[in-house]
Amino acid sequence: MSHLNTRNTLFLGLACSSMALTACQLPIGQHQTVKLNPVGAHDTVTTNNTVTTKASTPAKKAPSTAKAKSHKPHWGYGEEGTIAPAQWGNLEGNATCKTGEKQSPINIKTVFKVEKPLNLNKNYQAENFTAKNNGHTVVFNASLPARNQISVNGKVFNLLQFHYHAPSEHQVMGTNYPLEIHFVHKSQDGQLAVVGVMYNIGQNNAQLEQVVNNLVKEDKTATLSMFDVSSIMPADKTTFAYSGSLTTPPCSEKVQWLVQKTPVNIGAEQLEKFTDLYKANNRPVQPQNGRIISFN
Length: 296
Ligand SMILES: [Zn+2]
Fold this sequence. Notes:
Helix content is 10%, strand content 33%.
């Protein structure tokens, strides 16, 4: 496990004890051992009440191996024939991508321990998923969403699907992980709760193998049989929670984000299977605009 984790845990434990609302400034730039994918550099400056973050210098993005659509410009990540994230808000129906003030992802740097911590319960079981490549990522759609649920402060959300971004969309202390998987849940009244899990290069992850083996190309589908999503989530339940948006157009601001603090291992060769299909399919971090990130 990286120094990053140890240091965070230690620091949070020491500095954020019993006060009702305690700011925990995470240490920056020291002993960060998260391995970065060089294509994931961001150029967005994030500002909030307490910190100004200049993310890493823009790096030249490698072109996605996915074929760009040639007929008309469509949103994408700047690969040939697509509209890059900075321009998404100019596309019809996507103004929120530009005008929204609660956009995602963000750089998770200053977190708060709140008096009434968010109560997150996960109730997962094995379920069938259909893998579909949508031209931006591979989405694994649940056959029966109600079989997998989470509750957030008593409100129930069903698991609709999960999909990936490489490198991660959220940053922790200005650093991207090589991979982030989003588990998208929806409540009966249409609100979304997304559990974000980070993956860091390490030992091969046997639980991820079924996902890796079903990363289908465009226009292909596959079935993930009786897969338990909890098997590719961290055992540690520490969660960074904040209010944000979809990270793809139309960037709707109706998402309760639940980013898991502890990363999960992924083998280098396994990661390559994800990035061979899509890499740099991550929206840059957005301004925090004073939003509080709680943790518990
Ligand atoms: Zn996503």
